[in-house]
Amino acid sequence: MHSAASPAPGAPRPKPGLTDRFYSWLDRRTGIDGLLREALDEPIPGGAKYAYVFGSALLFVFLSQVITGVFLAMYYVPSADHAHTTVAYITKVVTGGSFIRSLHVYGASALMILLVLHMSQVFFYGAYKRRRELLWMSGGVLFLLMLSMAFTGYLLPWDQRAYFATTVGTNLISLVPWIGPQLKEALLGGSSMGTLTLSRFFVVHVFLLPAAIFGFVAVHIYLFRKAGAAGPSKGDPEKIRQKTEAFYPRQVAKDIVFVTLVILTIGLLAYYRPADLGPKADPANTQYLPRPEWYYRPFFEWLKFWQGRMEVVGVMVIPAVGLAVFFLWPFLDRNPERAPRRRPAAITAMVLTLLLAGGLGELSYRQDAMDPSVAKELSLQQEMDVRYMAAPFEVEMIGAIPSKAAAANPQVAQGKKIFADQGCSTCHGAGAVGTAIAPKLIGVVKKRGAEKVASIIHSPPPAISKAGMPSFNLPDAQMKALVGYLDSLH
Q1: Is the whole-model pTM more than 0.90?
Q2: Which tens digit of pLDDT belongs to each residue from 388-410?
Q3: d(CA 356, CA 359)
Q4: What three-state secondary structure class fits 469?
Q5: What percent of the chain has pLDDT over 90?
């Protein structure tokens, strides 16, 4: 007797379904069946484990960054006049725009976390040993490329936080011996940040770096398949060999579970805590306290320990030596032993490095909280970001200018400098054109009179003070110059 699933010898075979016929047609033309078998039949010594999911999660989140980045680029204009307006339009007007942008922002943080977890796991398991030196080094290049992606993308919103944090970062480039100033000028497109800087950062962030990352991902995967999965770092080699299984289905299932958790976490954060956007960058604001994103905080705090002539040592020499040791570690650690407990020096170095980075980041936040003046200023900056996010979308004016006669008046020039030095443009915008968090001041002197405006600046009424305007106890000459500048604007 024959089962229902197996036709009797000589009986006609059932006709393949439409799906089977299409897959067979596609396979004859593309060889997709062989490609899938090559990808999914990868042997995993010791069997599937959740310890191996970080690489797949990294690739998935990076692809998510590419997709969300494409949507954002459809609206973005990389110029100093329009960049912030287009990001504000995406955030406040475009349906789902705030969610897509938040996915992109939180995805960048997720990439940094997954990178650290992946490289720490590889180091802990000793998976850089036994002909895997190039695999480790290609992973290190990908790590630097991802950091560069985060750095170049941070400036693109062109708000206060992005502008001044990037200013600090680009200033560090000038410390490179001999060629530092030239490198900085090439990156900025001039002596200061502007439209040329934005366009260069945009091209690097959207085209050059993603192309390099895709290339090195291909190299990394090729080297991984060439060397094979490292497997467990300890255990009986014969038992590990016997327990070898294919990548599909168990490891695929574990990867899917972890990736789902990651994307759900990013999605929930993007939905319930949308990424902030602050007021438009004002280069004349000398009071703004720049702070980088959390993954750059350890280096930000590290710089505080190196001042004066020692700055080059802390900014360039020590990081360069550290990177060299990082990339060359597989050649320095020639011991074939992979078990963590038998590699106390390497494991201790890894743990101390992670603790140092985490401790510097925590110290940076703690110092900000312990300094009352810094904490107050950072709180005010955060409050302005919140107000700007809550305000309706408005197309920002480029700026107001004094009349030709007033522009030649030294008192007006002095008033313009006072307006910038006191941080008035942070709320009222460049040229006092107004922002979402403070009204425009053009014509206010003609409307209220010079004495009344000076009185408000010196001692704001309760309603204006409650809105966040501080009092300015300026000398009479400076107050007169400031009011004169406001009166000259049109």
Answers
A1: no
A2: 999 888 776 555 555 555 556 78
A3: 5
A4: coil
A5: 49
Q: Quick check: helix, strand or coil at residue 436? A: coil
**Among 148, 68, 151, 143, residue whose Cα is nearest residue 113:** 143
Are 266 and 275 contacting, i.e. CB atoms less than 8 angstroms apart? no
∠ CA 14-19-25, nearest 5°, is 95
Q: How many CB atoms lie within 10 A of CB 13?
A: 6
Size (the chain), residues: 490
CB 90 within 8 A of CB 72: yes
- pLDDT single digits (tens) 153-180: 999 999 999 999 999 888 888 888 888 8
pLDDT tens for each residue of 71-128: 999 999 999 889 999 999 999 999 999 999 999 999 999 999 999 999 999 999 999 9
Q: Which long-range contacts (CB under 8 A, 24 or more apart) does 72-76 make?
A: 72/100, 72/101, 72/104, 73/206, 76/156, 76/202
In whole angstroms, how far apart are CA 236 and each of 67, 228, 243? 44, 18, 11
- DSSP alpha helix (H) spans, 2-82: 18-30, 32-40, 54-73
Query: What is the rounded CA–CA span in Å between residue 363 and residue 356?
Result: 10
- The kind and range of the H/E element at 360 are helix 344-370
Pairing mode, strands 245-246 and 43-44:
antiparallel
Contacts 24+ apart (CB under 8 A), 85-88: 85/280, 85/395, 85/396, 87/156, 87/157, 87/158, 87/159, 87/277, 88/277, 88/393, 88/396
First to last CA, the chain: 98
Residue 154's alpha-carbon distances to 65, 141, 176, 293, 295, in angstroms, are: 14, 20, 22, 8, 12
Rg (CA), the chain: 29
